[in-house]
Every structure is written in structure tokens, then in C-alpha cells.
Fold this protein.
Amino acid sequence: MNGIGRISLVASLLGLLLLGQAADARPLEDIERRGLLQVCAHPNALPFASRKGEPRGIQLDLAAVIAERLGVRLSVDWVILSYQMKRADCDVVMDTIADREALRDSRLKVSRPYFRSGVVLAVRPELDGIAGLEDLTPAHRIGVMRSSIAHMTLEQRGLTTIPFAFEDEMMAAVASGEIDMAAVTPISAGWFLRENPEFGLRLLDIFADTEELNWNLAVGMRRSDRFLRRRIDRILEDLIASGELAALYARYGIAYRPPVYRKPVRVRRKTTLGEEDCVRLGYSRQCSR
């Protein structure tokens, strides 16, 4: 599995595909009794996870710290294919997108967010006049993930987009000069630059105010594990406050982006099942009828 775009998608969706299918919750007391926390991860998905040794990936490094502070060992269920997803016995999945609306029908509970992912712009170093969206023109060739929200957003502005299937291919195209810049996730971009520092590409957070191009990441847990969630929340709070989480991301060339919490906004919307009231908080929404 070579494409970072595909790897990133796998990392984001594991929570829905795996824990949403889990039969029974495993309470915190059972995890403590058996001395083991199980995490699901892809075996060949750096910078997220890898079974090949060091580096083992952000997800496994963070899961290991959580397990250590829970006083248990970490065990990894390696997952690639759909039949493995059905058999997986995970307690947690890292990097679950913290969107309560999207998770409402799953059996997931999420921790407090610990990282803001989304889309940044990787720019060739000689284009030093680019600082924001207003500096982009149709003359600029911008790589995008095909049919992504970034693709649609930039095309709506009348800009020139070049669609790609994988983020690592986009980054390589920027580095070679085939395109001028690329709309990529900060984790994939940071990892590429860690492995290829000679290209000197700049990363611009020019989509920070576009809600659809930002999302918070959290630890996905089985819905009934409220005690486990509270413990993990406290661990994450400590890691963020101490700077340890930022240092963990820095080892993979990734600048730490704290999760965004915005003032709650109440809205009423129509759905196929009728109207519902929603509370939007940052990049998450919670709705009820």
C-alpha cells in the first residue's frame, strides 16, 4: 500500500469500520484485570502505524503512552481487509474523526480531541509571494485529491486544479515542479518533508477558517466505556498541557495543531426523517429530533 492518500483514509475510517461492528463493550475494569489495551492499526501506514519496527507510527506511539499510563500493556490488531475488520477485537482506534453526527449511528464513543487535522497548502519555495487564498491565481497549478472538498472549494474560486489519487504523489509532483502547490493533510505533508527535507517546501495553513477543510481527531472507543473515556481524556489533557504530544508529532516532522473549540452554534435543519436541532461546536455537530 503505497499511496498516503489511501493510507490516510484507512486511518480515519478504522473507527467506524471496526468498533462500529464490535459485539460487546470491554469495560475499563476488564482492561485493567487482563493488563492489556488493544488498538487496531494498519501494518504498513507510516506515519500512522507500521509493524516493521522503528519508527512504529504516531498512532502506536500515542496508544503506547496511553496504555502505559493506564498501567497496562499495548497489543496491536493489524487490520487491512474487510474480513479482518469483522474479526478485530479492538478497545481503541486512534485518529477517529470527532464528528458526533457522523458517529451517531455507530457504536463509538470518542475521547476529547487531541489534534486538528484538515488541509494545508504545500508550496514550492520560490513562490514566496503566496501567503493566503487571495494570493492564488488561475496561473497556479494546484494538486488536489480527486473529488475532495478541497478540489471543489478551489474550483469554485476559479483556480486551476490538478486531481491526484494519492497525497504522496501530489507531494512528489510539487517537489519536482510538475505542479506549483498541493492541498494535502498536514500529517502526510509533514511526513513527506521529514523524509525529503531537501525540497524545502512551505506548508501554509490557509484553510484554517474553512470548517469543511478542518477536523479534530480523537481516540475512538466502544460506546459504553465511559470510565475508559474519562481516563483517556485525562491522559490526553496531560500530554497536551506538558508538550509531550507536540514532541511526539515532531518526531515525525509534523507541527502540532491543537484541536479547535468554537462557540456552540444552534441550528435547525431539515432531513429526510424530519427536522432536527443541532449544536455545532468547532468541527463537530450533535443533533437530536
About this structure: The chain has a mean pLDDT of 85.
